[in-house]
Each structure stands twice: as structure tokens, then as C-alpha cells.
Write a structure and sequence with these properties.
about 375 residues; five-stranded antiparallel β-sheet; 24 strands; globular; disordered C terminus
Length: about 375
């Protein structure tokens, strides 16, 4: 993980904050007094319009005494398919924005790297990861590297040592679908969400060694049994994205599905990297140590591990006062008024080798912040899966 990832990990474990504002009808909407917006334990310091581009994933890194913000964008909108970049005066397809946020009250736009042509998820460069060369085993110590998709057709690595002038290092592809990949800065291993010809799903995982960003080394393709080439029967839901704890944690948490048919898969990292690579059902199942199948109307957009958490109500117990959890969040694709309620689910994964070991507590998104901040109360309702 990067330093930024570790800081984010600690922050989330101290308390998740999830805010959802839903307007189901005009009748249920309530007018707010200007300037009377509610806030708790935070205040807005600054903002930037990002040239009217969407903001899907932000990552902040400290570089040479400056804090640099990298923002991944979905493709454009029908109203603004190709916004003008004021820095160049040229219309550019949505890609990656780079800002200096050292002074959070005055964010300064440094550069925009155009992405693939397209609207919404059909274009852009929606995710971004950044590693320092000093963290990567074979990176140039003085450099910084950015990993991103190029729309749905490739993955790219850019040298962003000078964030005002990013330089393309290499491109991995072609692929037929991308999303939220993960890059371990300490090992250089990357889990790239891709669509590969022959596979029976739009998105699966390609594992690469990116310890030397200029020389990507392919390790294997991975997915759920039934997604592989030549598979039979029903095809499991497509991957949304993985989160790895790296060599020390030796676990990878894969979230499959967005708003329905969700699956959380916990994988032994060492077995994934060293196990047989041919995508047979047996080889795909080999590194799996746990799986949670969500209800059919619930997705696993994100599976975020919350490890070694102190549970206040168990503090005086002889054992079990520290528990491992995973926060499972699904995502609305249409509108929360027109489909099942999207929620944050907390699963106890302290013992995750068997399906029956999982315990799950659902929270409506509006209640998620207080529930998570309370330290995952032992009094919450739990059901075995």
C-alpha cells in the first residue's frame, strides 16, 4: 500500500462516514435555508470545479513537500462530452486531473491527462493509483508513477514526478473492460480489472508485476470459477474491484457485483501469485479462503477490510475483543426509489474459511456513519449466511 492508502485505511477504521442524499419525489423534498447545511466533525476548506468533469476516485500523495491530488474521471456527459481545458485551451475527453492541494483553501489545477473518448463508463479514466519509485522494488527512487485505465481499452502507467508535465511510460492491453484496480507499492504487484477475450464476463482480474513500471510482467488471469474460457453453466457476476493487504497481510478482498447478486471473495495472496495459473475451475478455487454470497438484490461494489478492530463491548472478554470485519457497500445504478435500498453491510470475518463463519449486519446508508463510528456494536442484528 502507498502511504496515502495506509492513512486512508487508518482513517476508515477509526470511523466510516457515508453520506447519502436521496430525493424520491418533490413531495418529500425539503427546502434548506442558504448556508444552513448540516456538518459534523468537518468543515469545507476549499473546492474546485475540475473543469466540469466528474470525480470518481481521488488519491492524494505528498511529493517533494507538496500534496498532489489525482482525480479519476468517468467519460463525459451528453451536455459536456469534451470539456475545454483552460490550461491548454483545447477540448479534451475526460481523463485524469492533477491538482496541488498543499493549501486546501486554494486548490491549484496543474494538468489534465485526456482519457478515452466516450460517455459515462464508456470512456474517461475512472480510477487512479500512485506509487513512489522509492517504494517500488525496481522503481527509480526519485520518480512517482501513476496507474490508470484508458477508458475500457487499456491500462497506462505515467511518470508524474513533475505533476505539471506527466509523461506516458507504458500501456498494457488491449483489454475490453476496466474498473477499480489495485496496486501494491511495496511489492509492485497490481490487480488490474480487465476484460479479456474468451472470458465469459466483462470484468475479471489480470495480475501483473509492475515493480518496474517500464517493464510490466504478466503473472496470471483470475476470476470466479464459471467465468473462465470454456466454462459452463451460469456465469457469476462480474468483478468490481479488489483491495489487497499486501505481502504482510496476505489477503485480497474482491467485490463482485454492483447492485445485485453480490459476492465477496477473500483470497490467499501467496497462493494466488504462486499457484497454478491455468484458469481451470480447480485452479481458480485454489487461493480462495472465504466467500460471502449476498442476497440477490444486494451487490458488493466495494469490499473494504477493517482488521484487528477493538470492539468496546468485548473489551473485558478473555478473548475475541479484537475482530476482523469487512464493509460491503452496494451501489445504486438507477435510483434508490426504483430499486432495492442500497446499504452498507458489516460482515464479521474473524474466521472466514467457511461460509457459515460469516455474520452480517445491514445498515441503511444514512445510519451507516453512526453505526461504524460506534465501533461496530455487538448489539447489532446479525444473521448467518
Amino acid at each position: 500500500m502507498t502511504v496515502a492508502d495506509k492513512d486512508s485505511w487508518i482513517g476508515v477504521q477509526r470511523g466510516l462516514t457515508i453520506a447519502a442524499i436521496v430525493a424520491c419525489s418533490i413531495a418529500s423534498a425539503h427546502a434548506q435555508t442558504p448556508g444552513a447545511a448540516e456538518a459534523k466533525d468537518m468543515v469545507q476548506l476549499g473546492s474546485h470545479d475540475l473543469q466540469t468533469r466528474s470525480a470518481y476516485q481521488p488519491v492524494v500523495r505528498e511529493q517533494g513537500g507538496r500534496y498532489i491530488l489525482y482525480v479519476g474521471h468517468h467519460g463525459g456527459t451528453e451536455r459536456a462530452p469534451k470539456p475545454v481545458n483552460p490550461l491548454t485551451g483545447v477540448p479534451e475527453f475526460n481523463g485524469t486531473s492533477i491538482l496541488d492541494v498543499t493549501d486546501p483553501k486554494a486548490p491549484r489545477y496543474l494538468a489534465h491527462i485526456p482519457g478515452e473518448e466516450g460517455i459515462g463508463e464508456s470512456g474517461g479514466a475512472q480510477m487512479v493509483r500512485v506509487c513512489a519509485g522509492s517504494e517500488l522494488p525496481k522503481g527509480v527512487p526519485s520518480r512517482f508513477y501513476l496507474l490508470r485505465p484508458f477508458g475500457n481499452s487499456a491500462h497506462e502507467i505515467w511518470d508524474v514526478t513533475n505533476p505539471e508535465r506527466p509523461v506516458l511510460v507504458t500501456r498494457i492491453g488491449p483489454v475490453a473492460g476496466t474498473h477499480k484496480s489495485w496496486w501494491e507499492c511495496d511489492s509492485g504487484i497490481a490487480y488490474l480489472v480487465s476484460g479479456v477475450q474468451g472470458w465469459r464476463t466483462r470484468r475479471m482480474t489480470q495480475v501483473y508485476d509492475l515493480s518496474d513500471p517500464a517493464k510490466p510482467r504478466f503473472i496470471r488471469n483470475f476470476g470466479l470459477a464459471g467465468q473462465e474460457p470454456g466454462g459452463t453453466g451460469d456465469v457469476p457476476v462480474e468483478l468490481h474491484g479488489p483491495i489487497s493487504t499486501g505481502p504482510r497481510g496476505n489477503r485480497i478482498y474482491f467485490g463482485y457485483g454492483t447492485n445485485k447478486d453480490g459476492i465477496v471473495q477473500i483470497v490467499d495472496r501467496a497462493k494466488l501469485l504462486s499457484g497454478p495459473a491455468e484458469p481451470t475451475p480447480a485452479n481458480l478455487a485454489y487461493p480462495e479462503v472465504g466467500r460471502l454470497v449476498m442476497p440477490p438484490n444486494v451487490g458488493a461494489h466495494t469490499a473494504f477490510p477493517l482488521l484487528a478492530m477493538e470492539v468496546a463491548e468485548f473489551a473485558r472478554d478473555k478473548s475475541g475483543h479484537k475482530r476482523d470485519f469487512v464493509a460491503v457497500v452496494d451501489e445504486s445504478l438507477v435510483n434508490e426509489c426504483q430499486e432495492a435500498r442500497q446499504m452498507l453491510w458489516i460482515a464479521d470475518i474473524t474466521t472466514s474459511r467457511g461460509h457459515s463463519a460469516w455474520r452480517v449486519s445491514p445498515y441503511p446508508r444514512r445510519a451507516a456513519a453512526s453505526a461504524a463510528a460506534a465501533g461496530v456494536s455487538a448489539r447489532t442484528r446479525r444473521t448467518r449466511t
